[in-house]
Amino acid sequence: MSGNDGHFDEMTALLYLEGQLDTDRAHETAQHIAACASCRALVRGLERESDWLRESMAAEDEPIPARLAAIPGYNAAQWIWIAAFGLMAGGAYTLWNGMVEPWYAQAQQAGFTQGNILTMLFFSGAFWKGWDSMRSLMEFMAAATLGIVAVWLLRRRWRHFTAMAFVMSGLVLMLAAPSTAGAAEVRRGDPSFTLASGQEVNTDLIVAADRTEINGTVDGDLIVFSEMVTVNGHVKGDVIAFGRDLRMNGTVDGNVRSFNQSLTINGTVAKNVMSWAEDLVVAERSTVGGTLTAFDANAELDGRVGGDLLAFSGMTQVGGTLGRNVSIRGGRLRFGPDADVKGQIKFEGQAAPEIAAGAKLASAPVVTIRKRGPNYARAGYYWRQTMAWGASFIFGLVVLLLAPVFFGNVVHASDRVAPAIGLGVLFLFAIPIAAIFACVTIVGVGLGVAALLLYLIALYSTQVFVGSWIGEKLLGLRSGIGPALGRLALGLAILRGLRILPYVGWLATLVMLFWGLGALALALHKMSRTKAPAEVLVAH
What we know:
The protein is α/β, with parallel strands linked by helices. Among the domains are: 10-58, no CATH class; 182-265, no CATH class; 272-370, no CATH class; 403-539, no CATH class. Helix content is 50%, strand content 22%. The chain has 15 helices and 24 strands. The chain has helices at 10-17, 23-35, 37-58, 66-69, 78-109, 114-127, 134-153, 161-176, 379-402, 404-413, 417-440, 445-475, 481-499, 505-529, 534-539; strands at 184-188, 192-195, 200-201, 204-214, 217-218, 222-231, 234-235, 239-248, 251-252, 256-259, 262-265, 268-269, 273-282, 287-288, 292-301, 304-305, 309-318, 321-322, 326-335, 340-341, 345-349, 354-355, 360-361, 366-369. The strands form two sheets. Strands 1, 2, 4, 6, 8, 10, 11, 13, 15, 17, 19, 21, 22 and 24 form a 14-stranded parallel β-sheet that branches. Helix 9 (379-402) packs across helix 10 (404-413) and helix 11 (417-440) crosses helix 14. The longest helix has 32 residues, at 78-109. It is extended and about 120 Å long. The model is unreliable at 67-78, 107-138, 171-182 and 532-540 (pLDDT under 50).
């Protein structure tokens, strides 16, 4: 007996029912149960609970309603995830080998480390207004973002996903974050900051102000976040500037890293200059001792550059002295009558460089004329189109899995071709105008920016809905995730083929945008008034 009052406890009774007691103890328990009404009632109650538990576990599952059974499950098609991750891997490989690795190799030759490049890429988008390839950027962002969503959907199959995610996020942040200064003097202007002539800062100087003017001496690095920056004094370290306009009139013993709308150099930079800006001006009497790396819309180089010139620029004008090799990729290149280039010249652009009379070039430029528009003769073009198709397929896959009712409603609304195109024409132009107007007002800035972001996502999604509609008309309407993905893949492939056709590709793209945007508006209007019927979910 286990209890203090001579009765058995619940644990002993459970062990007796499960046959876990030894022979002597089981015989003793049986005799006690036969003689004790209280313990007998306890054993019967526990026995009934065990029977209920076994019945509930053995009971058949409740039948699932037909409308819920049509929702695609994660185990319905394992090849979908294999294809998705394969496309993401291919897209990452193409991005690295086609863009990142060549820029990284050229920047390394200019003396920049991996940390500087990551910092440059992280901050440049907020301060450089030269981006003009938003469509390609959205495709890569869609592939990366939706890849993360796909991993999230599979998180249950990765036991240590959360811990690994934290570890990888920490590593990425450590790589991307700029190195912190061990000791620095931080100044905040209200609204401006000025380091007067004759004043000296014996360590690094970090400034945040609307307007910054450095007339004194900074013994360390100068890191400034300001709308207007003017350096008339002496900086013995590096200058790292984020803002609108940067004017370097003084002397810098280190490097200059500029992430501004415009950079003007009127003084002396002993080492390297890297500029991400809309306009770059190296004035006539200025000097750059090392390499000049420019990612600009317009560059005017009338001063002296002692090292190499690496430029990605829409228009580059050279009127000064370039001491070493020149590698330029952009739209146009012009050498003025006072240009003096000591090294080799490589140029890839849309037209041959203009060379004025009197220009001194050590060798004839090696010119590669880049055709306007797609190059159908290169295999890389079709590889990029395949990656773009893959990105749109992943986007459609995630929308279909996460919002099947919404997906079906938009595809169903695409049947109304004429009203959809009419509404699409209206919304294609009205939404950005309204969003920009909202951004002008102080109260509507957040709403305007959010509307523009949603507008871009809607434009990208038009190919998914129109493509699924085309696939439905060609393959027919069948229930299930497999046929839906087949329709989506075929329709996107047809749209991608139409969009790369010469002369008519732009028209196909425009019709797709009108049509898909209008169908999206019709579906949203319908869903806001009435609840979507279950038949739409089953069909699509």
